[in-house]
Design a protein that fits this description.
This is Decarboxylating 6-phosphogluconate dehydrogenase. This protein has 2 domains: 2-159, Rossmann fold, CATH 3.40.50; 166-286, Orthogonal Bundle (N-(1-d-carboxylethyl)-l-norvaline Dehydrogenase, domain 2), CATH 1.10.1040.10. By secondary structure, the protein is α/β, with parallel strands linked by helices. It contains 13 helices and 7 strands.
Length: 298
Amino acid sequence: MHFGLIGLGKMGFNMRARLRDAGLEVTGYDRNPELTDVPSLAELVKALPAPRTIWVMVPAGKITDDVISELATLMDAGDLIIDGGNSRFTEDQKHGALLAEEGIGFVDCGVSGGVWGLANGYGLMAGGEKSNIDAAMPLFDALRPAGDRAESFVHVGEIGAGHYAKMVHNGIEYGLMQAYAEGYELLMAKDIIKDVPGTFAAWQKGTVVRSWLLDLLVKALEEDPALTRIAGYVDDSGEGRWTVEEAVASSVPAPAITAALFARFASRQDDSPAMKMVSALRNQFGGHATKPAKPASS
């Protein structure tokens, strides 16, 4: 099968490679001429056989809006667009309605796996009509980890459901990272603890707090044991805020996720060991940029 892929950044570039490794034909487009396979969106559409399937992997917001709006004028009835970025579920519903007017199918897909997805595969959460999900299944199967499909892919529900599930996933991620980070700061603060990195390493096998995030925490400490090279500043890309907003709208108590979001806001005011760890973890699993630590005052 031959698919199109728009956006060859940190994740899209690796996704193209994983799809090709699985034997699928992929034509990619990116504004960076060093990465793209074709010079324009119009040329991408022309390069694909009908009915076309194009995966959009660009930043949420106006960039996604612009890409989908342009594709709506270039593609034909019976084609399919998949938004694999981190769009808000309410935007999916707008995009789905716009494309439906042209007879173009739409699927939203939450993607988890970060910069490690090329080797490990991606967890996928899709929303849309079953016929469109079925048409894209070869693509989903190539991207997800090998093994039981039910452990790495879910058709969550209608349009918007995939990104809603990914939003909640990211909210949980906020809380997990914050708990590890607070534990790190507490261990660092006690003088009887002589080996903080070793303590976390010892938790990797057999304990109830073992996880991939813990493995990445240990990796971050191996690379920078006292986290001296990065500032305790942690950004947020939107999903945590949306999760808290949905919790309020649905009257669902979410104190851990809410507190983790507010802790990120606090990180922009004060440098703290816990926030250094959250920043380090985001860099480890997603390749998110860190801010360098301020030089020590003389």
